[in-house]
Design goal:
2 helices; elongated; mainly alpha; single chain
Length: about 70
């Protein structure tokens, strides 16, 4: 059984402070399973970005060594 994340309409979130408070409330009400799923997805994104960064770095080093 997969629980869907809590989605609330965004109202009166002007500026960072309003958004930050509203976001904290949304995350506080989010079920543990949804929080874990969010963290797992974030970890997958980090791994993809690290791999891309490594690939770009390797290509740059390879290009520099050709000079």
């Amino acid at each position: 059984m997969t629980e869907k994340p809590v989605v609330e309409p965004v109202l009166n979130e002007l500026g960072w402070e309003g958004h930050e408070k509203a976001q904290r409330r949304r995350y506080a009400r989010m079920p543990l399973a949804a929080k874990i799923a969010w963290l797992e997805e974030a970890q997958r994104m980090v791994l993809v970005m690290e791999k891309k960064r490594s690939t770009v770095h390797d290509r740059a080093a390879e290009y520099d060594s050709k000079d």
